[in-house]
Amino acid sequence: MFDALNAEVLARFQFAFTVSFHIIFPVFSIGLASYLAVLEGLWLWKKDTVYLELFNFWKTIFAVAFAMGVVSGIVMSYQFGTNWSAFSDKAGPVIGPLMGYEVLTAFFLEAGFLGVMLFGLRRVGEGLHFFATLMVAAGTLISATWILAVNSWMQTPTGFAFNDAGQFVPVDWWQIIFNPSFPYRLVHMVIAAYLTTAFVVGGVGAWHLLRGTAPRRSGRMFSMAMWMAAIVAPIQIAAGDLHGLNTLEHQPVKIMAMEGHFDSHPEGAPLYLFGLPNQREQRLDYAIGIPKVSSLILKHDLNAPLAGLDTVPRDRQPPVAIVFWSFRVMLLVGFLMLGVGLWSLWNRYRGTLYGNSALHRVAVLMSPAGFVAVIAGWVTTEVGRQPFTVYGHMLTADSLSPIGAPAVGASLVAFIIVYFLVFGAGTFYMLRLMARLPHDPTPELGEGPIRTSGVTPGPAGNAPQGG
């Protein structure tokens, strides 16, 4: 069945499939761990039990997401041995220690304090429990730091030499870790995690506001999420622009594919909004673009020249159509997130944040938007690096294990079945948890005593106390 397919293509698809499932959970865990730390800190500071109730609600969801992230990540590490043993042999002296540091400094930190965070509030006291929550949040960030150091080194490799066996060997660990693209990728990814979590939290809050469930808690989480969207989405767009400029400097071919520039433009390149990349004919069919705007964005000069894929041998070009469209999906979702954040600011100014059902419905629809943007961005990054695993130094075709297509295909089918069953069930369970926000222990808004306690009902009569 798989004889007609190349083992390299199947192995790449298998890794793409497993990492696409896996990345959902760590991204959510990174943002949610920090959100839990904020909730507990606000509870200790303000002594408002709403924050503690939200903490207890989201910590269970975090535990499920954390567990699924661990399980899905283990599978990917096995693929380095089964499908990519040549890559592991050649690049192992560099990437092996970095991944080991991730386990030692991050995973052990998270795992060591996770139990205290989940079950220890009444056993260890408020101060030590808050410290445990901070350590779990710090562990997720440290974990992201090491993993992104590995990936960034593969994108912009520095600080290494080759030994007699042709292996990458470390020469300067500082250059390896703090390679040219690492700071940009770290900032871009961490902000993406926070935005992703904000839209999940905001979507859950909006869902319960529409249903009238626990308006104090649902309104508080919705308000906090919309603050994050309004403030952080513009920062993410700016960080993405800086990341793009860094990519232009170190991986110009990736930028050519992202922009759809098959031809060089010596007097200013257009920004193509739409087109159908035709890699066989080396052109962008049905192109719709704005003249010279790409040069303005990438070089800050309308007339700046930009090289195209006509300067790159065809066997060194990435799959342009995938990179071109995944980049546009990421941009579209990012600007939609910005739009929701600005819309929430307008409603907050008008005092209708909790009563605008249209905003709430849009927030529910946008709740998975962060995951879509993250996966699209990952596809842009990884496919745009092709045909290399270590950019400019090691081809993907040379990284493969001596394994046949049927063997890779069989394991791929098994992964697809197991992943959809196991992680589909886990995701369904998390959604069920999100849908079961308990009712407020206080009387519903609209009753007289609540008004005297500082909660101001909105135009719809169900506006909770702002967060």
Automatic annotation (TrEMBL):
Membrane topology: Multi-pass membrane protein
InterPro entries named in the record: Cyt-d_ubiquinol_oxidase_su_1 (IPR002585)
Region listing for Disordered, in residue ranges: 444-467
Compartments (UniProt record): Cell inner membrane; Cell membrane
Transmembrane segments: 20-45, 57-78, 98-121, 128-149, 186-210, 222-239, 322-346, 358-379, 403-431
Sorted UniProt keywords: Cell membrane, Electron transport, Heme, Iron, Membrane, Metal-binding, Transmembrane, Transmembrane helix, Transport
Family: Belongs to the cytochrome ubiquinol oxidase subunit 1 family.
The protein, known as: Cytochrome ubiquinol oxidase subunit I
Native source organism of the sequence: Ciceribacter thiooxidans
